[in-house]
Design a protein that fits this description.
Two copies of one chain form a homodimer.
Chain A (H helix, E strand, L loop, with lengths): L9 H13 L2 H8 L3 H15 L4 E4 L2 E4 L1 H27 L7 E6 H6 L1 H14 L7 E6 L1 H9 L5 E5 L8 E14 L14 H6 L3 E3 L4 H17 L15 E3 L2 H9 L5 E4 H9 L4 E3 L7 E8 L8 H11 L3
Parallel strand pairs in A: 3-4, 3-5, 7-8
Antiparallel strand pairs in A: 1-2, 5-11, 6-9, 6-10, 6-11
Helix pairs in contact in A: 1-2, 1-3, 1-4, 2-3, 4-6
The first copy, chain A, binds a DNA duplex through α3.
DNA sequence: GATGGTTACAAACGCTCCTTGTAACCGGTA
DNA sequence: TACCGGTTACAAGGAGCGTTTGTAACCATC
């Protein structure tokens, strides 16, 4: 895998954006909290690294070059994702005393929560409040439900069709498992959707045994196949052995991109890849791969304390 | 704006993913091209920085902890965006002899091209071919058309309703200007769409004079207003003065997030913010803010040489 | 012409990271 | 039991990079 040796530092990109905002190396330096010389040097080295002139210096201020503006836009996106990671890390390290303990399934923790945390922070910060301190635990759906039931978590997020027993819940969105292949895979050129049988007999790149998405696919395939051919074998044998079993979706995605074969992944995890044509989605007929995303909590009809309410309200805006 | 001091290095995150893939510090080190000790130290410092244990070391291999898996997923997204930036930078620095010269409008260059470049690279690399070397120029739509006409660019990408004179074109997608506010802005709670008049008299955060999106909004407002009130003043006076005029969309977005007021931005630039509720979209009635994205080229009915054909075919997959 | 603003150059310090060398641990296997 | 191949951790040295401090040049304004 190629390593991003020519991509400037995150800090350097922040400096670049500061220059775009302020129109001066000096002012940018003050905003970032270093000296003007440091900013000058940083940008110089960033330009050398990138091989492109980013800043047009004049003796009465500096503006971004045309290329610099484009790079600044890209940098802003990168930093937005970085701040999601930052917020996620803050939620993950539980040294400080938790004000809100959230337990979420892997898919939600990995794909959605960072964005929620950032926007929640921004909203709170603007109201002049201290952003809520959130402690995040990522686990599978059953564990999440257990933790909410046992009071170890104030709020939980799980995927799946049913509401866990003894808990209140609200649907906050939907997710769908999708079949993805590289654009040069034969399936990418299909005009007709796959049948459940074809999907079941395909050698997929998948997560390791016991993963939520893998189980979800297996049961969905089982119900689809028994519906069409009732005398078929049990669920355990409805899928062909995996071409490759990996421990993270990131690894699965990388394997698919490297040509290892088709995979079934959450729509959320591959949305960007589909948009940029790195991956192609293959339609499947006669099988229900859609599932709800739910917030769950225990106790009253409405979620308990302030922070949990805030988060839930924030999240349900999307309906 | 807060700076991401607790986010590990991009290189450290790459190392983390390498460990996830290989299951061993040693193997990861070989893959990355450094010694095992370096990997050990990197991860150690990354864990200290993040405040979370990421890797579970045993004396016969290492796997990621539960938290580590979550972080790895976030890191993969960050690195994906970083590699887009990388591909964009490669296209921007024109030292090497160009095989394909692309000229694109700001919006497309900033929002869509990086993703295309990455997937194009991946596709080529897999076919065993050398990825096409692309030289990118970002400019406004008229300049792009000029460069394509004059042969300075092999392929162009512009937004706008009309096809530039004397050029072939193909619609490759759509974009829409959207009104966005912070979730705590009064407009966020409106049930009825804005009228063109309300939008015109609002003090918006906007780009500087001469920007494509700003012009597009002005003309769209002008036609909407003359349709409803034919005796209205000329286009120049259809909009209230800007609350703030900034030079990059990143700055505009930051200003909106900081509470400076509503803004009108391309849907493409705020898609992520809308998804994560950092920003809220406000509907507007009776005004057409939708525009096509077109690839343009000069000469025959189909785009000229191989590399340009490839890129165009790649991009039109999305229809 | 002085003043306040800008950027650039140069030297010294300090930190971070990498490499080399070494030790400890675990699980096979002879 | 001893060895070998695999793993990770610890320690010391060196190189590189970024930052600060000090200085100079440039430009506009008063």
């Amino acid at each position: 895998m190629p390593l991003s040796a020519r991509v400037p530092d995150l800090a350097a990109l922040e400096v670049l954006l500061a220059i775009a905002r302020t129109g001066s190396l000096n002012a940018a330096a003050r905003q970032v909290g270093v000296t003007q010389q440091a900013v000058s040097a940083r940008i110089k080295s960033a330009e050398a690294q990138a091989g492109v002139a980013l800043v047009a210096r004049t003796s009465r201020g500096s503006t971004l070059t045309a290329e610099g503006k484009v790079v600044a836009e890209w940098a802003a996106r990168l930093l937005a994702v970085a701040s999601e990671l930052d917020a996620g890390l803050a939620a993950l390290r539980n040294d400080h005393h938790a004000r809100l303990r959230v337990s979420a399934s892997m898919t939600i923790a990995e794909q959605l929560l960072p964005g929620w945390l950032v926007s929640l922070q921004a909203a709170a910060r603007h109201r002049g409040e201290q952003p809520a301190e959130i402690v995040l635990t990522a686990a599978n759906s059953e564990t999440v439900a257990q933790q909410v039931r046992g009071g170890e978590a104030d709020l939980g997020f799980v995927e799946g069709p049913t509401r866990p027993d003894g808990l209140r819940s609200r649907v906050i969105g939907h997710d769908e498992l999708v079949v993805v292949v590289r654009p040069d895979h034969p399936w990418a050129r299909r005009r007709q959707p796959l049948s459940p049988g074809e999907l079941a007999s395909a050698r997929l790149v998948s997560r390791e045994e016991g993963s939520g998405t893998r189980d979800a696919l297996a049961t969905a395939l089982a119900t689809a196949l028994t519906a069409t051919a009732p005398r078929r074998a049990s669920a355990a044998r409805t899928t062909a052995p995996a071409a490759l079993a990996l421990s993270t979706t990131a690894a699965v995605r990388a394997a698919v991109l490297a040509g290892a074969g088709p995979a079934v992944l959450s729509e959320l995890t591959v949305a960007e890849d589909l948009a940029s044509h790195r991956l192609t989605r293959v339609q499947v007929d006669g099988i229900n791969l859609r599932r709800s995303l739910r917030a769950i909590w225990s106790g009253g009809q409405f979620p308990p304390v302030g922070a949990a309410r805030d988060l839930l309200a924030h999240v349900t805006r999307r309906q």
